[in-house]
């Protein structure tokens, strides 16, 4: 119950997120992270490039449900892969 309260508290004070800004972050060339992420979803972990991992680390946690509404844990998977592959934190 406390966890639900803390999650609600952290999101309720957040500014509204512009869906277009979320999409532009991940589609922005030259990284074209969206294609790399689609590859990871299909098991091609080696396809993600360092530039994409750097982009992943800058995406707001509030944008992930907008970009991938049916994949709630994709951000954790990507951040884990990037941390292991490129030692990004």
TrEMBL record:
<protein>
    <submittedName>
        <fullName>Prolamin-like domain</fullName>
    </submittedName>
</protein>
<dbReference type="GO" id="GO:0080155">
    <property type="term" value="P:regulation of double fertilization forming a zygote and endosperm"/>
</dbReference>
<dbReference type="GO" id="GO:0009567">
    <property type="term" value="P:double fertilization forming a zygote and endosperm"/>
</dbReference>
<dbReference type="GO" id="GO:2000008">
    <property type="term" value="P:regulation of protein localization to cell surface"/>
</dbReference>
<dbReference type="InterPro" id="IPR008502">
    <property type="entry name" value="Prolamin-like"/>
</dbReference>
<dbReference type="GO" id="GO:0005576">
    <property type="term" value="C:extracellular region"/>
</dbReference>
<keyword id="KW-0732">Signal</keyword>
<feature type="domain" description="Prolamin-like">
    <location>
        <begin position="22"/>
        <end position="72"/>
    </location>
</feature>
<dbReference type="Pfam" id="PF05617">
    <property type="entry name" value="Prolamin_like"/>
</dbReference>
<dbReference type="GO" id="GO:0031982">
    <property type="term" value="C:vesicle"/>
</dbReference>
């Amino acid at each position: 119950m406390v966890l639900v309260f803390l999650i609600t508290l952290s999101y309720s004070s957040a500014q509204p997120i512009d869906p277009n800004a979320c999409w532009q972050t991940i589609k922005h060339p030259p990284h074209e992270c969206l294609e790399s992420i689609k590859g990871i979803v299909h098991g091609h972990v080696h396809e993600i490039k360092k530039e994409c991992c750097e982009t992943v680390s800058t995406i707001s946690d509030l944008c992930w449900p907008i970009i991938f509404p049916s994949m709630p844990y994709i951000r954790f998977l990507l951040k884990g892969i990037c941390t292991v592959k490129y030692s990004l934190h």
